[in-house]
Amino acid sequence: MGILVNEHSRILVQGITGQEGSFHARACRTYGTNVVAGVTPGKGGQLFDGEVPIFDSVERAH
């Protein structure tokens, strides 16, 4: 099954501050994907690349 993303999709990246998560989040944003939030436990309240809010859990991001 493929992942279906279009211009209306809002994407949350789990582990956005880690090496793999940050790499893929940046690649998605460069491509034009609407990355609206990231989740990394213990890093809530920060911003990823100065723009994307980071939350401690997916529940808090909701």
Which key phrases capture this entry?
27% helix; single chain; 2 helices; alpha/beta; 62 residues; 4 strands; globular; Rossmann fold
Walk me through what this model shows.
By secondary structure, this protein is of the alpha/beta class. It has a single domain (11-61), classed as NAD(P)-binding Rossmann-like Domain (Rossmann fold, 3-Layer(aba) Sandwich). 27% of the residues lie in helices and 24% in strands. The chain has helices at 19-31, 58-61; strands spanning 11-14, 35-39, 47-48, 52-55. The chain has a four-stranded mixed beta sheet with strand order 1-2-4-3. Helix 1 links the parallel strand 1 and strand 2 (35-39). The chain is globular. The chain starts with 10 loop residues before the first strand and ends with a helix.
Layout of helices and strands:
Elements lengths: L10 E4 L4 H13 L3 E5 L7 E2 L3 E4 L2 H4 L1
Parallel strand pairs: 1-2, 2-4
Antiparallel strand pairs: 3-4
